[in-house]
């Protein structure tokens, strides 16, 4: 496979076709991204990888910090009996994480990934602190703070992944670095849930946010010293900032994604009969259509469709289905055990702790097999884990012991998270030019976080329509969880089609190689 980096090309994941070499002469070169020199000593390299991994950990901690004490937070605002209002607390955060990642990746490509990474932690700290102070206001202000809080991780994730992508050539070392990054997802969620539950039950829930804010501030300062210097890109001065940053694409793309997501998450609150919900949904779809047309004509598109191939589309589709199922699984698992089983937030955090151990094992197992196993196989295993984990929670009885299904689900689900994320990130990172590393990271993280937020809107709509006006809570939860099972199942089907497509491509390449070898033999025969 043509690779965007020199070096080892033996990875089993290096099966994704890319147009970057064919399109090289067609694309204007607006900047040249140089390689990031990774630290020479092992301790500094470990510290470097760890500080990058903290971006993933804190991002998922930001999700876990509201899902665990959700009803305690809702009680302080007087909305504890409104599931639709409560779902906005995590959804507002994932909405902006998913949408602003596209802009953050492009800005990182233009102005340096380290600068954007540090700024992300500082912004994260500011709005996490303000979210804690929202206790003195109302749930709308808290939702706004959560939305602005999500912009911090949106700057952290693509730029952190891009730094790793520029620091390592394709090979085992790069795979292990990306796997470590992926391992932080379940660990981060469990960390955020535990810290917030501890403060919510024994002190005051805003302290969970204030402690997180202080930690983000410390990490921002530490990243200044631990991340190697990332040389400034060299610009072609013939193009303006408007053109280089694809501002028109940013405005239409982000606006479209926000409006569509807002409509789906607001519908369970006010109902689809409210006219403005449908109007916003239609406007969002129109804006995304305009965004697609702009990207086709843009000199430097926000989403480089010229570098996209059908198999990358399969990969992103698998990621979308799997992580949408994860969003439903994690939200409604907590609602199930807290509302129906009467489990406290802190005990719930303890019950979710197996995800940390299982996630670490899954991540490093994935890192060790990625260079041997085709990407389609990795995706099929990951989506199978998402599907099995969703089925276990979606079918478990209320009075059942924790160890029968919920525990098994906690062990299985991280394999979906920690196989799909590093595999998809590596595939896109290796398939795109170095100058688009921020965009490559943005696409995967956009799909992951936007899918989580949008899926909560889908699930909330189903829940409110099948729970008989809130009288049958279990029926509502089951309906939402069945949607998660369906999405994960769709992902399995997509992964199977991806496998067939990949197998067909490998056979075609093998036949071409055999034909070329046969042709060479015929040319040599007369001379012999």
UniProtKB/TrEMBL annotation:
Domain of life: Eukaryota
One Pfam family it belongs to: MFS_1
Transmembrane segments: 46-67, 87-104, 116-135, 147-165, 177-195, 207-229, 241-264, 276-292, 312-332, 352-370, 377-396, 402-428, 440-460, 480-501
Membrane protein topology class: Multi-pass membrane protein
Localization of this protein: Membrane
Keyword DNA-binding included in the entry's annotation: no
GO molecular function: transmembrane transporter activity
Region (Disordered): 1-27, 509-528
Main localization, broad class: membrane
UniProt name for this protein: Efflux pump
Species name: Lachnellula hyalina
